[in-house]
TrEMBL record:
The gene is purM. Its EC number is 6.3.3.1. PANTHER family: TRIFUNCTIONAL PURINE BIOSYNTHETIC PROTEIN ADENOSINE-3, TRIFUNCTIONAL PURINE BIOSYNTHETIC PROTEIN ADENOSINE-3-RELATED. This is Phosphoribosylformylglycinamidine cyclo-ligase. It comes from Candidatus Planktophila limnetica. SUPFAM superfamilies: PurM C-terminal domain-like (SSF56042), PurM N-terminal domain-like (SSF55326). Keywords: ATP-binding, Cytoplasm, Ligase, Nucleotide-binding, Purine biosynthesis. One of its GO terms (molecular function) is phosphoribosylformylglycinamidine cyclo-ligase activity. Residues 53-161 form the PurM-like N-terminal domain.
Length: 350
């Protein structure tokens, strides 16, 4: 006799996972959320958009990539969800949008309710940090496609911004200042390179190496910083003097910043304004990774960049410091030949 359970799918385990995650999801809400979990769709009261003159909806989707393999190897699942939220909502805020709600998708080889609950707890915690409602999700069991302990996660979020307050590269001007916000680690990018180094150099995730203040595994699982509320606070404070943001993800600092700089201008970062994180120095040394390669792979200690009118730079830095974000002036925008590179790193790290 064949049953769904004998094929590898356990409906009862899925139901148990839903029960375990309810408490976490209940914390990740907003007043606009209608109903609870368990329906076929999440509901959000769109009358909230009435506060905008001409609301533009913004949407973003992303995953965590192979950082999930570090979580699996460590047997730690309650942090990776924060990475997912950060990757999604901090893309939205680049255009000035306030993230409103998010949904997630978790694929597993075998549903282990406690593990699913841990993953969702991290997602919910990230949503709380971004004031974003978690209004729905899906857990899919894929026996035969994924090993029992393998998993992948993805998510999507929707936000809104007033049309006349939308941030864009067209607002960037020569003389603007680059305000760098520190990364909390490698975030969720470049982990294919990290895992390659781990394998080739036979590094132990459970070991504390050299100047690192935690085990290598703990450092590699440090959740991605969520900048959403800091960025929204800057938008409210500075208005038109804030041009746009650059979320530093895959591709590194220069390549991501180039995406928000118009032709004919160049964002020049001065490396001497900050030091490389110890974990990056360690991984680059162990793997023999050249500077031009790690700068296009890892964030090099900068997770978000605000491009701001020079007269507002000090105010922005002080406002972020008051929120616990120790930002700094890391460079400026200047004129360049049309068609030339739109972002570059200069000098030496201090």
């Amino acid at each position: 006799m064949s049953t769904y359970k004998s094929s590898g799918v356990d409906i009862d385990a899925g139901d148990r996972a839903v029960e375990l995650m309810k408490a976490s999801i209940a914390k990740a809400t907003r007043p606009e959320v209608q109903g609870g979990i368990g329906g076929f769709a999440g509901l959000f009261d769109a009358s909230a958009l009435k506060k905008f003159n001409k609301p533009l909806l913004a949407t973003s989707t992303d995953g965590v990539g192979t950082k999930t393999e570090i979580a699996r190897a460590m047997g730690i699942y309650d942090t990776i969800g924060e990475d997912l939220v950060a990757m999604v909502v901090d893309d939205l805020v680049v255009c000035g949008a306030e993230p409103l709600f998010m949904t997630d998708y978790i694929a597993v080889g075998k549903v282990i309710p406690e593990r699913i609950a841990d993953i969702v707890a991290g997602i919910a915690r990230g949503c709380v940090k971004a004031n974003t409602a978690l209004i729905g999700g899906e857990t899919a069991e894929h026996p035969g496609l994924l090993a029992e302990d393998e998993f992948d996660i993805a998510g999507a979020a929707t936000g809104a911004v007033d049309a006349d307050k939308q941030l864009s590269k067209e607002k960037v001007k020569a003389g603007d200042v680059l305000i760098a916000m520190p990364a909390s680690g490698f975030h969720a990018n470049g982990y294919s390179l990290i895992r390659h180094i781990l394998k080739e150099e036979k590094l132990d995730l459970g070991k504390q190496y050299g100047d690192l203040d935690k085990t290598l595994g703990e450092i590699l699982l440090t959740p991605t910083e969520i900048y959403t509320l800091d960025c929204l606070a800057l938008i409210k404070l500075l208005g038109e003097n804030l041009r746009t943001f650059s979320h530093v993800t895959g591709g590194g600092l220069a390549d991501n910043t180039a995406r928000v700089v118009p032709d004919g201008l160049v964002a020049k970062f001065d490396r001497s304004t900050w030091s490389l994180p110890q974990e990056l120095i360690f991984m680059a040394h162990e793997g023999g990774v050249p500077q031009n390669d790690y700068e296009r792979t890892w964030n090099c200690g900068v997770g978000m960049v605000a491009i701001i009118d020079a007269a507002s730079a000090d105010l922005a830095i002080k406002a972020l410091a008051a929120r616990g974000m120790q930002a700094w002036a890391a460079g400026s925008v200047g004129a360049t030949t049309p068609g030339a590179a739109r972002a570059a790193l200069e000098g030496d790290y201090r």
